[in-house]
Amino acid sequence: LTELIWLEMADNKFTGTIPWQLGYLVNLQSLDLGQNLLSGSIPAQLAYLRQLTSLRLNDNNLSGTIPTLTSLHNLESMDFQLNSGLIGSLDSLCFASQNLTEACADCATGSVTCYCCDNLNCCF
Description:
The protein has 1 helix and 11 strands. It is mainly beta. A 6-stranded parallel β-sheet has the order 1-3-5-7-9-11, with no helix packed on it. Strands 2-4-6-8-10 form a 5-stranded parallel β-sheet, with no helix packed on it.
């Protein structure tokens, strides 16, 4: 599975936590786990996915502090919205990725801050 480049598992009613082992999929370019029932925190090991261009974790029950994902330099779009338990800042990720054109987060609630939301196509 280390050669896998696209993992689309959205809208499947999956429960449990996001496996930290996803960090081993170092060639992954797109990860979509949105619209499930996933809970717990976002694994810091997702920072190993340096080829990632799209990260969608929206519409789950994720909680905790958003990990530092500054190694995701190729990221073009990210979606963390509709996870009421997430806190933290996406600012470092915004600055690290030169290709970022879409950033979605629950910035309006104040629990997540995102400099990108002022400058990009931001979802609320």
